[in-house]
Structures are given as structure tokens and as C-alpha cells.
Design a protein that fits this description.
Largest sheet: 2 strands, antiparallel
Number of strands: 2
Shape: extended
Radius of gyration: 17 Å
Oligomer: single chain
Order of helices and strands: HHEEH
Length: 95
């Protein structure tokens, strides 16, 4: 399963198949929010164990978790402090 799109038709099929996008666009329309923008970016293959979700409250990074929380990645245990510091530094520098 991948969200990788190789051409414009792939993008249209992905958007059309996404129930979540349909709900979001509908909600934005009903609320009178400015037109939604679909931002696309270049595809990069990322090791599944190295994908993280960051949680932000009032502009502050408040939590970090693995994106794939159904698997345990044993090799991350010894480096979790380094990962946390790296993600926090990225957040402070880029976002």
C-alpha cells in the first residue's frame, strides 16, 4: 500500500478514493472556510520505523510517537533520546 503517485491520474484516483478528503472538503465548504489547498510534494521512500507523528498544542511541540504504532521496532530503543532531541531540534529550526 502506497500513496505514491506517478502521474496526475494517480492523484485524481487517490483523492477520489479518499473518504477522509471528501469529509474534510465538505466540512470546509459547510463552514465557509477559504478554499482548501491540496499540497503535493516529491515522493521519498522512508523506512517505516523512522516515521513519527508530532503533536502540537498552541504552537508548542507536546508529543512525539511512531506513526506505525502497531509494530515494535526494537532497534529504536537504544536511540530514543537521540531521536527525541533530533526531532525537537528539527521542530525548532524548521517549523
Amino acid at each position: 500500500r502506497s500513496l505514491r503517485c506517478g502521474c496526475l491520474e494517480d492523484v485524481f484516483l487517490l483523492v477520489k478514493a479518499s473518504q477522509r478528503l471528501g469529509v474534510d472538503f465538505s466540512d470546509w465548504h459547510d463552514l465557509g472556510v477559504a478554499p482548501a489547498v491540496l499540497a503535493l510534494r516529491k515522493w521519498y521512500a522512508v523506512e517505516q520505523s523512522m516515521e513519527f507523528r508530532c503533536f502540537v498544542v498552541d504552537g508548542r511541540l507536546t508529543g512525539i510517537s511512531q506513526k506505525n504504532c502497531t509494530e515494535r521496532f526494537e532497534h529504536l530503543g537504544p536511540v530514543q533520546d537521540v531521536l527525541r532531541e533530533t526531532i525537537c531540534a528539527f521542530w525548532g529550526r524548521v517549523l
